[in-house]
Prior knowledge:
Blueprint: H1 3-21, H2 29-44, E1 48-53, E2 56-62, E3 72-79, H3 91-97, H4 105-112, E4 119-126, E5 138-141, H5 143-150, H6 154-162
Antiparallel strand pairs: 1-2, 2-5, 3-4
Amino acid sequence: MNDIERLAVEQAVYNAIGADLKTGVPDNLRGQVNGFYLDLYQRTGATGFEVRVNGQKVGTYGFNRVKGTPERTVTELRVVDEGAMRADESEDFNAWLSDHLPELAVRYATETGELLDGMEYVTETVPATPDGIRPNGTLRVRADKVADALGNALPATIAGLLGGGAA
Length: 167
């Protein structure tokens, strides 16, 4: 396999599984696994777990201890309704926006003091760090061990992932 073929295969695999790997998304595969291990941690106190594929250890899943953070209140300026930010509302904003990305509306409001329609200050309480651990676990696996554990099933497993099916 030449470099461009390898890149195409790797990009296809990444495209197929990237959404499942994002951290901080409770409904994706990583979020579901993290929720399971976080629950297990809260019930048992264990912070590290072996990861096995077909009965063979391929890595670890664990939580990092951190110095706990107290509950705190944070107030941020946020765009809460992009649809309310119409072109006829502020000519200055529209001129500025032509040179910047829409995500910078908050920066504009901060710099100019102009609070546009669809923007407001949002106050929320950020909870304390639970039991001194980071709420998102760290997964460490060795690709060679996963390949060995899957053996002859490796091609079918990858094909299943590329097809969007469960592997």
